[in-house]
Amino acid sequence: MKKIFSTMLYPLIADEIPGLTPELLDAAVAVPSDSSHGDFALPCFAFAKQLRKAPPLIANLLAEKVNADFIDHTETVGGYLNFFVDREAFAQRLTDDINAAEVWGAGAFSGKKALIEHTSINPNASPHLGRARNAFIGDSVARLLRFLGYDTEVHYFVNDIGKQISMLVYALKDRADITFDMLLTEYVRINDELKEHPEIETEVFAQLAKLESGDVDMIKQFRRIVDICMEGQKSLFAEIGIKYDYFDYESQYILSGRTDEVIEKLRGTGKLSEDENGREVLDLEAYGFEQKILPVTRGDKTSLYPLRDICYSIDKSERGRDVNIVVLGEDQTMYGRQVNAALDILGYKGAQIINYSFVLLSTGKMSTRQGNVVMLSDVMEQVVLRAGDQMESRSGVRDEEKAKAIGYGAMKYAMLKCGYGKNVLFDWDMVLNMQGDSSLYLQYNYARIMSLCRKYAEQFPGESYELPRADKLTSDADWSLLKDIYSFKQMLAELPENGYPVANIANYLYSLAQHYSKWYFDNPILTSGDKDVTNARMWLSAKTAQVIKSGLNILGIDTVESM
């Protein structure tokens, strides 16, 4: 809403302030926290040096220039110029803007290309909830990018040749009856066995050397384990609405010879040298990192993961023309910066990194290797069971699809409403919370509005509320809700420049739902006694529902038509 006001204000004052641009004015305009100080305010202190006048004098000067139908009156207080808008004129502009959009807030960046890589967990077990936080964040950011109009690709980097996979290959080489569900148990078992028999590690690395040399039988053994795991992971994530456009296999960079090409390019930069163990390491001292080198090969010159990742990151930088994002845990913060530095050395632009903090248990960080985890599949089962139980106790009916929408929504919302930099302390009450700041509260408000729309259709058959009268949106309550709805677009548009904090969407939706709920009880809608007021308030309700649905969809959460 601030944006539209500054756009309307700009031509009125542009000639008075040399060098003023629409962007500078939009940045300067503020929204007072106290509405008695106006709907908008322009602090004039920033113009004092340029105009060689005191801020109060500038405020008075500009006040004389802003006569317009959308401004009711102005007040100058010190160096501030406060604007009180004409609600009817401004409401007309806001409703016209909202109605002109097929979906409010969508498409602000249409025509641009984006790529995001997320999840990319080792294909050695079913994911635990800590790993799932990466997928929840990545999926939400991908949905946001698409909602904003970006042509978006979602990628998953399959680490199909790492030590973890080689250990599973070793552990299961004589087994024919391998299933996805047994992989975690076998992975924990082989790690425990390795502690007692360290010689196993020699065989594990020998398998990796055979793979890199192109041994056909070893390639088949690795692919068998990876395929079982990836099919299990894809199925699990698809169940909760998380899908990927491309699965990029790490091995392809070795088997295609791409790692050889890139290592030669790195050698040509003069930044690559051998350490005392014969490893080739990349010198990153110029970037000021605490870790000044990045090893890219082992002593036998077989590639390490960073070299394959550099190859992959080059491909991503070329495909993600306008936006290129990777989601990484906080333990990979330095590593991500190192890979970007390697790309910079080679003349490519690195990815924008979204780092997130861990999901912790009361016993500390989750660890697949130690088996100290809460499995995503277990949480999924429990949230659906809990949602179904509540539904059945309330109505006597158990709807499995609705239980999934509510249960999976609660699980995702509990994780996504936390800022990326905050640890999530897991407990069942957190994930199974169906009260207060939860997705269920948002779903309930959406369903309530859908019920209201059905009642309107019954009470006023054939009538429409799609073009509300602006003069019926000027009461304090209606005007306030209109401004909240309008601000959705600006809130979304600011997310890319702030690092895509999807928690802001959750916070906005909860605030909007609280606002709507109070407004709903305080302001008659179908029983207002004035058909034009009823239509205006039905329009506000319908647009609130549209925004809630759009926001929940970005978070990967389904709405329900009735509760």
Can you describe this structure in just a few lines?
With 563 residues, this protein is an alpha/beta fold.
Describe, in plain words, how this protein is organized in 3D.
The chain is of the alpha/beta class. It has 21 helices and 14 strands. It has a five-stranded parallel β-sheet with strand order 6-5-4-10-11, with helices on both faces. A three-stranded antiparallel β-sheet has the order 1-3-2.
List the helices and strands and how they pair.
Layout lengths: L1 H12 L8 H7 L11 E4 L4 H4 L3 H9 L7 E7 L2 E6 L1 H14 L12 E5 L11 H19 L3 E8 L4 H9 L11 H14 L3 H13 L3 H24 L6 E4 L1 H5 L2 H11 L3 E3 L5 E4 L9 E3 L9 H15 L3 E7 L3 H14 L5 E5 L2 E3 L2 E2 L10 H20 L4 H17 L7 E2 L2 H4 L7 H21 L16 H19 L8 H20 L8 H24 L9
Parallel strand pairs: 4-5, 4-10, 5-6, 10-11, 12-14
Antiparallel strand pairs: 1-3, 2-3, 7-8, 8-9, 12-13
The number of helical segments is: 21
Total beta strands:
14
Uncertain spans, ≥5 residues at pLDDT below 50?
none
Mean pLDDT: 92
Apparent shape? globular
Strand order across the largest sheet? 6-5-4-10-11
- Helix and strand content put the structural class at alpha/beta
Radius of gyration: 28 Å
Largest sheet, if any? Answer: 5 strands, parallel
Helix content: 40-55%
Task: Give the strand content.
Answer: 5-15%
First-residue to last-residue Cα separation: 33 Å
